[in-house]
Amino acid sequence: MNLADLPQHFLRLHFLSLGMKGLEDPLIIRSMRDDTLEGKRIIKDLLNQSDNRSCADCGAPDPKWASSNIGVFICLKCCGVHRSLGTHISKVLSVTLDDWSDDEIDAMIEVGGNSSANSIYEAFIPEGVKKPGPDASHEERTRFIRSKYELQEFLKPSLRIASRPSERGTLQSSFSRKIMDSFRSSNSSKKSEGMVEFIGLLKVKVINGTNLAIRDMLSSDPYVVLNLGPQTAQTNVVKSNLNPVWNQELMLSVPQDFGPLKLRVFDHDTFSADDIMGEAEVDLQPMITSAMAFGDAGMFGDMQIGKWLKSHDNALITDSTVNIVDGKVKQEVSLKLQNVESGEIELELEWMPLDQ
């Protein structure tokens, strides 16, 4: 068997069995330093993924900490609660300050990010239990995080493991194996037991941006991230352009209990976390309600069937009409980006029923 085929912890044991003399070799020292830098680069790349730019537990932006054995990125306030749980439940590491082992990096990669982790750890949040926000008190955070990870109250019943304090070390490894198996299963098949029922598909054509905010010296490298529930879709990056044209189509599944389509624009940075350039939400209710009421759009000529009205509490620049065009339900949407100094985004939505 080749050494490269052995798991990392066996390789480390093998290396130690050879004695520490080899550590004096400059080539080995340089290799170890390069491995450390590569590990930090991998963790930073994971952090830059759209679903990892906010804390897994409270949603605070720009987390700089992670639970390496759970596989989530967390903020400083939630980090303190995680530490109090003990390393047998959550081993907290700094994204920038700590050295990461190969096993810890592999575990983060295998989980797949905050959205993937939360689809398991928050699968069944009971009615009346509210997830804390960025401004939540320490008591609220502690109560939720303990319920989520230590008491396992929000997991699928098949993943829960009851334990007494004296058994936690042994059972936690069994629990971790079951969690990892669940991640592997959910990543390989999104139609696994417990997944939500979908009622249709939403095709979103991200057309262009206008007068976007400057986040580099003179310009920005913008891209758009869409979220519908736990789903994420992302456009390409347009280099050095405040008026980018994407004309890129993204596809999302629409669950039965759908919420708003969330849109965020980011400036791509090579050596640091990407900067946000504004956000907006699209109310899908007018389009989907109208489309389902009319049924087969192919039976009708071109006509208006619904409208989303501009108001002070949405991001619309002008009223957005829902139309049947060539037998398809479409909606053009012009959005003024929120929480930023400037910027507009043009979208075209198309509703696609599952039987289409």
User: What count of helical segments does DSSP give?
Assistant: 8
Largest sheet: number of strands, sense, barrel closure: 6 strands, antiparallel
Residues in β-strands, percent:
25-35%
Mean pLDDT: 81
Structural class estimated from helices and strands: alpha+beta
How many strands appear in the DSSP assignment? Answer: 13
Stretches where pLDDT is under 50 for at least 5 consecutive residues are 1-33, 162-174, 186-195
Shape: globular
The first-to-last residue Cα distance is 52 Å
Major sheet: arrangement of strands:
7-4-13-12-11-10
- Indicate the percent of residues in helices: 25-40%
- Computed over alpha carbons, the radius of gyration is 24 Å
Order of helices and strands: HHEEHEHHHHEEEEEEHEEEE
Protein name: ADP-ribosylation factor GTPase-activating protein AGD12-like isoform X2
Domain Arf-GAP: 40-168
Domain C2: 181-297
Pfam families: ArfGap, C2
Features:
disordered N terminus; alpha+beta; 356 residues; 6-stranded antiparallel beta sheet
Secondary-structure blueprint of this entry?
Blueprint: H1 8-17, H2 26-47, E1 65-67, E2 72-74, H3 76-85, E3 92-94, H4 102-111, H5 114-121, H6 138-150, H7 168-188, E4 198-210, E5 222-228, E6 231-234, E7 245-255, E8 261-267, E9 275-282, H8 285-294, E10 303-308, E11 320-325, E12 328-336, E13 344-353
Antiparallel strand pairs: 1-2, 1-3, 4-7, 4-13, 5-6, 5-8, 8-9, 10-11, 11-12, 12-13
Helix pairs in contact: 2-4, 3-6
